[in-house]
Amino acid sequence: MLWPLLLLLAAGEAQTTRPCFPGCQCEVETFGLFDSFSLTRVDCSGLGPHIVPVPIPLDTAHLDLSSNRLETVNESVLAGPGYTTLAGLDLSHNLLTRFSPTAFSRLRYLESLDLSHNGLATLPAESFTSSPLSDVNLSHNRLREVSVSAFATHSQGRALHVDLSHNLLHSLVPHPARASLPAPTIQSLNLAWNRLHTVPDLRDLPLRYLSLDGNPLAAIGPGAFEGLAGLTHLSLGSLQRLPQLVPYGFRELQGLQVLDLSSNPKLKWAGPEVFSGLGSLQELDLSGTGLVPLPEKLLLHLPELQSISVGQGVQCRRLVREGTYPRQPGSTPKVALHCIDTQELAAGGSDTL
User: Where are the transmembrane segments (predicted)?
Assistant: First the structure.
């Protein structure tokens, strides 16, 4: 019985250290039977700008160059043995104001890139076309305008997650209809806490998740989400202006399952038709808004709705009342929202809206 146990342990994952460039730390992760496969994580953070270009082991999978006061990155900084196999690169918390359009051109296996907490003001076109990226973090920079085409990658259809939150964005340039490169495969896009006054044109992107939290959006009307029928999660919390929800403003979002409108205290009803077209919506967050009490006709426009959050600790769920039994010919079940204050649940308080 001991031999199978030894095989199982050998097939697991182990971590060891190895000699590394002075000041850096190299951690080796081994995989497979008898540690037959290994990858190295190199941490060269917090050492200063003199550290680049830093030599790294040939099997390096992740390189951390964060907090080094780097002001620019070009192809020569990320060149040499070991860089061609990089899957993850962390350049966050530096002083980057720009980077060369070819800076990442040799990183043919790069999947995750963190450029957050820098001072980037522009994003070169086709910056990531050579890499199969699946995650790009550009949050907390100084970007004012970004072209969607900048995120065209060598991903072969792989889902791409892009974080552009906490910038100075006032517009996104849509991907040209007749561009030489295919539209980026962005499925998750975080645009929270920027300076967007209107919903940007994101048509033709395979978006599943979109956050516009904290933007000064003035109004959301028909056509705002054109071409985003595949979106399943939309977050519009903490909008910085008095947002107006116009009837039929969400009608293009037939596949939406989660809608977050929380922390908008001045948000008022413009009629239940605001939610017309949301036939797949299952979760609705209205906590911290002026949208309570809920209109009686709300459920008619949201046939799949299962739960609504209407306040701190207050959760409403769809309740179907079958009525008398046996059911009378032509009668239909009555649908209502059963709301419970979870903070007062011990006291037995509940209401039906």
Answer: none
For residue 259, give Cα distances in angstroms to 32, 211, 212, 230, 290. Answer: 43, 10, 11, 14, 16
Residues 6+ apart with CB under 8 A from 12: none
Other CB atoms within 10 A of residue 109 CB? 13
What distance in Å separates the CA atoms of residue 111 and residue 38, rounded to the nearest whole number?
A: 18
**C-alpha separations of 24 from 49, 56, 198 in Å:** 13, 10, 45
* Sole residue written with tokens 């561009």: 179
Q: State how far the Cα of 72 lies from the Cα of 273, in Å rounded to an integer.
A: 51
Question: Distance from CA of residue 157 to its chain's centroid?
Answer: 17
Pairing status of strand 209-211 against strand 171-173 = unpaired
**C-beta separation of 269 from 294 below 8 A:** no
Q: pLDDT-derived band of residue 143, with 50, 70 and 90 as boundaries?
A: very high
Instruction: Look at strands 283-285 and 307-311 and give their pairing.
Output: parallel
12 pLDDT above the threshold of 80:
no
Please tell me the distance from the alpha carbon of residue 253 to that of residue 349, in angstroms, as a whole number.
35
Integer angstrom CA distances of residue 344 from 132, 315, 347, 349: 50, 12, 5, 6
